[in-house]
Amino acid sequence: MYNIKKFGEVDSLRVTVLMEDYAGYESGYWGSHGIALLLDVKAGGTNKRILLDVGQSFEALMHNMELTGVEPESIDMVFLSHCHYDHTLALADVLEQMNKEIPVVGHPKVLRKNFAVDPFLKEIGAGNKNTPGKLTGLGAQLALVGEPFPLMEGVLSTGEVERTTDFEGRGIGTYNLVDGSLVPDSLVDDMSIIVNLKGKGLFVVSGCSHAGIVNILEHSKKITGIDNIYGVIGGLHLVNADDRVITKTIDGLEGVNPHLVIPGHCTGQKAQYRLREKFGDRYLPMNSGSVFVL
Questions:
Q1: Could you give all domains of the chain from N- to C-terminal order, each with its CATH number?
Q2: Cα(first)–Cα(last) distance of the chain, in Å?
Q3: Residues 6 or more apart whose Cβ sits within 8 Å of residue 111
Q4: Which listed residue, 70, 131, 288, 293, has the most CB atoms within 10 A of its CB?
Q5: Got the DSSP string for 155-205?
């Protein structure tokens, strides 16, 4: 097994928000429910572009990529944080634009059939366009791995996240289709990216944090042996959380003392307000078109 405690470090990281629920004030970018984060990573003489999630709207993603000057073929890898449509639906269309063979990383169950039943039955997974056969036909080199493994020097997939808190990672009331039955889904496929910034510590990039952001950060510390959490960016899925869960989440985040907290997408306005109140200048908002240079 790969020794993840020797996965190296990166010299620099640039995160461009290609897709987010919010477009921002006086912005030409488009907002769309979902997220797509482009990581420009430099480690030694290696420079790679990793796209975490693709959102649901191909048209909106392409519009925003054009504004940021990002060519689809310039992307070196796609990482799927979990199965939901607002993170995966545009994948086949994006791969067609890339027009090359490219690693697509995710959990072994990321392309499963996934359903919501409230307020009515509907599929909320990657959809029929994104089957393994169709994706490989478009050049996807599927690397569906449930354990932590390296994406490049200094960059690591969390793999499945250990769930240890008593307020996170219990599912959101969705279901998997298994042998003709709808089975409650705990979203075991929820995975994030860990970047080890030279001289700073770990920076965690999440899609929705269905495993729980506190669980994700503690898991990241455990598997890498690095205790310093420099920051986190992505959805924290507190949009429907009650005050108790929001308070416990903020307390857990404060316990790891991040230098930066950049929440968006499914975090929710109430949680956003309280995060900004707690972390002050360490809190940064995100929207389509935002760029963060570390």
A1: 9-159+176-293 (3.60.15.10)
A2: 30
A3: 83, 125, 126, 130, 131, 132, 135, 144
A4: 288
A5: EEE--SPP---SSS-S--S-EEEETTEEEE---TT---EEEEETTTEEEEE
**Span 97-123, pLDDT tens digits:** 999 999 999 999 999 999 999 999 999
The answer to whether residues 109 and 83 touch, using CB atoms and an 8 Å cutoff, is yes
Report the distance separating Cα 62 and Cα 74, nearest Å: 13
pLDDT of amino acid 228: 97
Cis ω on the peptide bond leading into residue 132 (within 30° of 0)? no
The candidate with the shortest Cα–Cα distance to 118, out of 170, 174, 72, is 174
Length of the chain: 294
d(CA 88, CA 103): 15
Stretch (H or E) spanning 67:
helix 58-68
Beta strand 193-197 with 201-206 is: antiparallel
On the question of pLDDT at 3 being above 70, the answer is: no
35/96 Cα distance (integer angstroms): 19
Q: What are the Cα distances from residue 252, in Å, to 167, 206, 219, 243, 264?
A: 11, 16, 13, 14, 18
* C-alpha to C-alpha distances, 107 to 5, 65, 83, 200, nearest whole angstrom: 21, 26, 9, 28
**Which amino acid, one-letter code, is at 199?**
G
Average pLDDT, the chain: 96
Euclidean distance between CA atoms 258 and 186, whole angstroms: 27
How many other C-beta atoms are found inside a 10 Å radius of the C-beta of residue 40? 18
pTM here is 0.97
Q: Is 179 exposed, middle or buried (0-12, 13-18, 19+ CB in 10 A)?
A: exposed
> Is 66 exposed, middle or buried (CB count within 10 Å of its CB: 0-12, 13-18, 19+)?
exposed
Secondary structure class of 236 (helix, strand, coil): coil
CB neighbours of residue 24 within 10 Å: 16
